[in-house]
């Protein structure tokens, strides 16, 4: 039998590592190039929900989550400046795990399966050739418009939550709180850029603590922050893109980023990686062309994600429109229908 052709994956985040694992399970030679080093903190709500959990199960990776100490999330509650909902059951349970733990666990699994992992190397992405997959995460936007969002994250102890996932909305954006492994709580927010955002670390902490007098500020009053876990990202674009419009083969956020308020980006990273395994393994075995693999992956990803991206775009606009925040939380407090619909349509 002819030797299988090797595949290079650029980017060792969730999408790249999951794809690498899936390909190694088919005995495809894989080299993965990652710019950073493991373990590392990432700006992420660390709340995994939706069909990605089914992809993880099919790839035999759910045990890895359990061994890493993942925490199950079953309830959620919403808070605005003046309104709140009681804790309610999530339509389906989510899994919460620190990216500090998760990314390194996936990297170790990839290596254990015989994958070659090169860290601390930034690969060129301008000209991606045959045999190379782009899993480089979100594309940094430097212009105006949708690039006005930035994200912050920190872990803390000594925070008692009313629900497994709490969402706090404010005119500046939102902050999600969820329990993660190791008895910590993840505090992660997406914020709208403002002219007075030059205040450095203290200003960032203040944004994550919420406006004075808010339920969020109260919740974090006694929090013991893990300063090493603090991280930030800027230049986030939330305009949905189609995989078919991308040059080359992409997985995860390199295709498009779903608004983080949905808590579905990691799921899309796992799902797109799983969708890419069979077409890439076929190319590696000379059973199809690179272009056929590219078209199949793009078609399947667009079919899986187009509807939820469209719903997520509107959900993001609604939730982050300051004048709508109190009325929306009031509606969610009275009826579970809006919350369930928003959850299900964005997954
Ligand atoms: C504020 C915020 C909150 C979020 N909350 C959630 C949540 O609660 N739930 C959820 O499901 N999703 C959430 N997400 C989204 C989630 O983090 C992403 O969808 C997910 O990380 C995408 O995985 P990825 O592998 O595509 O990209 P990443 O995890 O970003 O990985 C990309 C990797 O590529 C590497 N890289 C980039 N360029 C190169 C290069 N040229 N050469 C080598 N390596 C390179 C990077 O170092 C990085 O390790 C959130 C995002 C933000 C911004």
Query: Which residue ranges are poorly predicted, with pLDDT under 50 across at least 5 consecutive positions?
Result: none
Total number of helical segments?
10
- Walk across the major sheet and give the strand order: 3-5-4-9-10-11-8-12
Oligomeric state, counting identical vs distinct chains:
single chain
Number of domains: 1
Strand content: 15-25%
Biggest sheet record: 8 strands, mixed
Radius of gyration: 20 Å
| N- and C-termini, Cα separation | 41 Å
Q: Name the CATH homologous superfamily.
A: FAD/NAD(P)-binding domain
What does the secondary structure layout of this molecule look like, with pairings?
Elements: E1 7-10, H1 14-25, E2 30-33, E3 47-48, H2 52-58, H3 62-67, E4 71-79, E5 88-96, H4 99-112, E6 116-118, E7 132-134, E8 149-157, E9 165-170, E10 173-179, E11 185-192, H5 200-209, H6 215-219, E12 224-236, E13 249-250, H7 265-284, H8 290-319, H9 322-334, H10 337-345
Flavin-adenine dinucleotide binds next to helix 1, strand 3, strand 11, strand 12 and helix 7.
Describe the structure.
- The N and C termini lie far apart (41 Å).
- This protein has helices spanning 14-25, 52-58, 62-67, 99-112, 200-209, 215-219, 265-284, 290-319, 322-334, 337-345; strands at 7-10, 30-33, 47-48, 71-79, 88-96, 116-118, 132-134, 149-157, 165-170, 173-179, 185-192, 224-236, 249-250.
- Helices cover 36% and strands 23% of the residues.
- The mean pLDDT is 92.
- The protein has one domain: FAD/NAD(P)-binding domain, CATH 3.50.50.
- By secondary structure, it is of the alpha/beta class.
- The chain binds flavin-adenine dinucleotide.
